[in-house]
């Protein structure tokens, strides 16, 4: 039995429609609840007196339910508004249809749909279209078009549910689903199913395509990184890209390398603050002034060791402070003076007439020998020595050793000293000719010397 009579409903609706009172005041005046009054007003405005009349329990066929849901979607109606327009008293029924359709598609709207959830669709009989008998109803072609829309909606909702996992879908997520389903359905059908404006779809499609505008740059970064075996960081890679004609900001390169998970080999840097004493064999002429205006003005040298399977290999290079170039080097299985002598012979051969460089070293025993000092004097080379126990006075050579070991020795495995020795020769050739330095305006040491000083080997 209904709680309110039709006359009570009509009186309350007419009072509200007179405009003198609002919903709440009208509901209090007539002793009804606000929700019921709102439903009666909507029904009366849509259908007149029939909208508030008592109605017997009624069943709705599939076509009617689809019409209701389609109208809701097209006009953005609520369940209550749709119920008023289609004279469905229980708006909860429309909400149930909407949930069933979202969950099971068309099968959810069919009678006893709990036993028919195989996503079956109504079969359309083959043959010529039925003759017009004067009865109002959609044509066969209209039903086929509607069926195509419903299939697209069903596929779209399944795809969207899997993508966003029951979260609110953004316009970009909707556009992604539409792009994936375009081979199966027409674009207008998909946009209708997604409730996505055409202009919004094309905007999101362009934005998605622009996300990968650095695809070619990423490939180039990966190529440069692999070519130099991971030795380059984002600064050197930026300089290399600019040399290749790609103008790009170093921060962009750093961000792209982070996405590609490319990271240069970084060696640990140690700082020692012990200043030591001034050497007695030779003064510290260099005084940490590591800059030079031209080649063969300031040199630095030292000895380092490598260990492979318990055996040692020693390397003695000469570094030109003008451009960081390895002027000469020698290797030996033993730290004998013959190795240093061979290095000096190769370095002196690079001197031009009038060159009188300063050769700086630490206070190693090789550099304190009278034979070493005489060789320097005979070639007009001034000797300079670091203070005792202070590697910072010879920081340029120490930096080269650190780079050599972090970029080459520590990242490779060697089966013998011969293999290591051959590899060192190859790396030093690479260091001089190919490895660019940001301090040299993105050029390698030899390129910088030939361009700035105009001196060829």
Automatic annotation (TrEMBL):
Coiled coil: none annotated. Gene3D superfamilies: Ribonuclease H-like superfamily/Ribonuclease H, Winged helix-like DNA-binding domain superfamily/Winged helix DNA-binding domain. It comes from the Bacteria. Residues 120-139 are annotated as: Disordered. Transmembrane segments: none annotated. Residues 291-453 form the Integrase catalytic domain. NCBIfam families: transpos_IS3. This is IS3 family transposase. It comes from Pelomonas dachongensis.
């Amino acid at each position: 039995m209904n709680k309110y009579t039709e006359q009570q409903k009509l009186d309350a609706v007419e009072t509200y429609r007179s405009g003198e009172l609002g919903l709440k005041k009208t509901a209090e005046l007539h002793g009804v609840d606000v929700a019921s009054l709102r439903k009666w007003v909507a029904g009366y405005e849509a259908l007149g007196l029939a909208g508030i009349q008592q109605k017997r329990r009624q069943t709705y066929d599939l076509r009617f339910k689809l019409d209701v849901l389609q109208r809701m979607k097209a006009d953005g109606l609520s369940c209550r508004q749709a119920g008023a327009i289609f004279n469905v008293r229980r708006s909860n029924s429309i909400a149930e249809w909407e949930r069933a359709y979202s969950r099971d598609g068309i099968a959810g709207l069919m009678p006893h749909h709990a036993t028919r959830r195989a996503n079956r669709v109504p079969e359309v009989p083959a043959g010529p279209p039925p003759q017009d008998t004067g009865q109002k109803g959609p044509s066969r072609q209209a039903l086929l078009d509607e069926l195509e829309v419903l299939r697209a909606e069903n596929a779209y909702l399944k795809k969207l549910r899997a993508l966003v996992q029951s979260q609110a879908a953004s316009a970009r997520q909707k556009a992604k689903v539409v792009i994936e389903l375009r081979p199966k359905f027409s674009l207008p059908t998909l946009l209708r199913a997604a409730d996505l404006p055409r202009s919004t779809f094309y905007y999101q499609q362009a934005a998605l395509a622009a996300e990968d505008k650095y695809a070619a740059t990423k490939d180039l970064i990966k190529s440069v990184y692999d070519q130099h075996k991971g030795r380059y960081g984002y600064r050197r890679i930026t300089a290399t890209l600019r040399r290749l004609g790609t103008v790009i900001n170093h921060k962009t390169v750093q961000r792209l390398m982070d996405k590609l998970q490319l990271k240069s080999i970084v060696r640990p840097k140690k700082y020692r603050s012990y200043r030591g004493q001034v050497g007695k064999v030779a003064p510290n002429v260099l005084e940490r002034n590591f800059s030079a205006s031209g080649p063969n003005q300031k040199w630095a040298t030292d000895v380092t060791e490598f260990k492979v399977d318990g055996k040692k290999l020693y390397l003695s290079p000469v570094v030109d402070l003008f451009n960081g170039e390895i002027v000469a080097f020698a290797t030996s299985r033993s730290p004998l003076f013959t190795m240093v002598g061979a290095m000096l012979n190769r370095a002196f051969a690079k001197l031009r007439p009038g060159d009188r460089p300063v050769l700086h070293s630490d206070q190693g025993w090789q550099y304190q020998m009278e034979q070493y000092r005489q060789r320097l004097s005979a070639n007009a080379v001034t000797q300079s020595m670091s203070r005792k126990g202070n590697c910072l006075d010879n920081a340029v050579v120490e930096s080269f050793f650190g780079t050599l070991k972090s970029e080459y020795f520590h990242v490779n495995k060697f089966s013998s000293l011969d293999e290591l020795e051959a590899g060192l020769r190859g790396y030093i050739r690479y260091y001089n000719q190919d490895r660019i330095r940001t301090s040299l305006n993105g050029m390698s040491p030899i390129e910088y010397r030939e361009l700035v000083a105009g001196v060829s080997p």
